[in-house]
Design a protein that fits this description.
mainly alpha, about 70% helix, elongated
Length: about 160
């Protein structure tokens, strides 16, 4: 009787398994959910837009030169004013140099705004992005950020 009990238990496991689901991967489990790579169509050159971009890039170059010319004197004036009391002649001269930096920076900000407006107008009309315009905006924005950092650093030397 003892030897018969394990055989009876094993016979329960030997039943048909045709109704059981397969453990193999289903077709949906083997698909990829990665977005397909879309290659943008080449953008046709636009001579008028290229001329606008070149004009704004030249304005940015001029503002960079103006900022650089003012930056070196503002650096030395701010360093000297940092050691002087607030309201002193050195402090007032440094404030004037910071104002000049702000004027030079305003020209860069205006060029960035103009380039961005060109991109917005282009986008609103349904035209594809223009690589030369996007590159000019990126360069101009980076320069505006650098000028902001310089101005903030020099202003911090004068804040008391």
């Amino acid at each position: 009787m003892r030897s018969l009990a394990p055989l009876l238990l094993l016979s329960g496991c030997a039943g048909a398994t045709a109704d059981a689901p397969s453990l193999l991967p289903r077709p949906i489990e083997s698909r990829s959910d990665v977005e397909p790579q879309v290659v943008p169509a080449p953008v046709a050159p636009d001579a008028a837009l290229d001329a606008d971009i070149a004009r704004h890039v030249a304005a940015i170059a001029a503002s960079i030169q103006a900022f650089a010319a003012t930056e070196s004197s503002a650096e030395s004036l701010a360093a000297r004013a940092a050691k002087a009391p607030g309201g002193s002649d050195a402090w007032l001269e440094a404030q004037g140099a910071l104002s000049d930096l702000g004027s030079a920076r305003a020209a860069t900000d205006a060029a960035v705004a103009d380039l961005t407006a060109l991109a917005i107008t282009r986008s609103e009309s349904g035209a594809p992005p223009y690589p030369a315009l996007d590159a000019a905006i990126a360069r101009a924005s980076a320069e505006a950020d650098r000028q902001d950092e310089v101005t903030a650093r020099l202003s911090a030397l004068l804040d008391r």
